[in-house]
Specification:
nine-stranded mixed β-sheet, homodimer, 13 strands
Chain lengths: 250, 250
């Protein structure tokens, strides 16, 4: 099995390193990842400027390609131009910070998996519930490898990816996998208005995350309860209930 | 009714101008839009740099705020920091170029509507099937206004937006509204590898769009057949069929 690995924290992050290490027990791993942190880029593609691929070494050997673009760029250019052999699976992560509930819509990590799906690959996004880069990702990476190993037997359809969120807990405190649905928690947004040294106003996005999903059938609820949450996320977006009854007057 | 209007082609585009003009017959219109073209940004948010809001005049009067950010930024900052009165509806567009099938996932226009929905507003994305900025958007804007006028009666749930795609045809050739589902057409991607004057390689995303949706119940098929396509797009992404049967081995 040939696994393409990417992320949105950048090729230097500890999360991708732990993931690559664990996936090497499953198959051959190729890395194509952003050259810097790309959080909250969503499914952006770089169409107005050229992309460059830089070979990165780590521990004295070739580790992967760093791209001056978004996670979705990395997946596209990896598959179309950089990989010498066809990939069989895409794994994106491990992201520092969970990607649950409404955050899925902003997540570069999840969008990389979405792009993998668009390009015809089975795809998994993996995040850990800690923003601290020092958090050990070994256990989350092992869980990701377990999913990668059995992916073919899970019968996931071509329009669906798996979005995995692991608690930042030691191995013995993790309760195992739990299949979940996307939760409904979201942000209470705010912008801080400041003045620059010239007296001109500018704004910073701030705000607070309201975690309301305590149900362990939700992605966030399961993760907070100590499970590795696995959500099948689908990109056929039509609301069929509404479609069948919607009548618009001319 | 107070309508927030944004787009991803930038506040100077003819599409947003036509839309604002048509929506003024429906209610009060406020404009908060990117200061430049933002295509293919998807649902990106600006979190690592400050945003600025510049007041723009057009035809001798205040037209709206230009933001140095993405369409999703414009919606968030508009609602949180710039609008003096609460908005009742968000309309994003009119985008030059359709946003059908898999393109929905990359579209800044659609993502602005998604952000509107996240912020609790009924939201509509509007695109016209022509990349040419000289294409007249008056008819598409009139159709958008008709939807805006009856939105409250359509009973669209809070997790769903309307994605509207209009053909670039004269009024008399348009067959009316058609409620559709997201099609499955997509891109055959390719990267062109070139060398810069220093001899270093760089890549441009190129590729070709394969239009395979001819069914008039699909967004693209309906639009190509002369209908104004209206797709209810939902952002609860869980694949419930898979969720209920997925078993992952520890």
């Amino acid at each position: 099995m040939h696994i393409l690995v990417t992320n949105d924290d950048g090729i230097d992050s500890p999360g991708i390193y732990a993931l690559v290490h664990a996936l090497r027990s499953v198959g051959k791993v190729s890395v194509v990842a952003p050259d810097r942190q790309q959080s909250a880029v969503g499914h952006a593609l770089t169409v107005s400027s050229p992309l460059r691929a830089t070979k990165i070494r780590r521990d004295g050997e070739f580790f992967g390609y760093a791209i001056n673009g978004t996670p979705a760029d990395c997946v596209k250019i990896g598959i179309c131009a950089l990989l010498e052999e066809k990939a069989d699976l895409l794994v994106s992560g491990i992201n520092h910070g969970s990607n649950t509930s409404k955050n899925i819509l902003y997540s570069g990590t999840v969008s990389a998996a979405t792009e993998g799906m668009i390009m015809g690959l089975p795809s998994i996004a993996v995040s850990i519930d800690s923003l601290d880069y020092r958090t050990d990702c070994t256990v989350a990476a092992e869980y990701a490898a377990r999913i990668a190993r059995q992916y073919a037997d899970l019968n996931i359809p071509a329009d669906t990816i798996l979005n995995v969120n692991a608690p930042a807990l030691p191995k013995e405190q993790i309760k195992g996998f739990r299949v979940t649905r996307q939760g409904t928690s979201g942000w209470e947004d705010a912008y801080e208005c400041r003045k620059d040294p010239m007296g001109r106003e500018y704004f910073w996005l701030s705000g607070q995350y309201n975690s309301i999903d305590t149900d362990i059938d939700s992605d966030e609820g399961a993760m907070k309860a100590g499970y590795v949450s696995v959500t099948p996320v689908r990109y056929q977006l039509t609301n069929e209930d509404i479609r069948s009854r919607l009548r618009i007057t001319e």
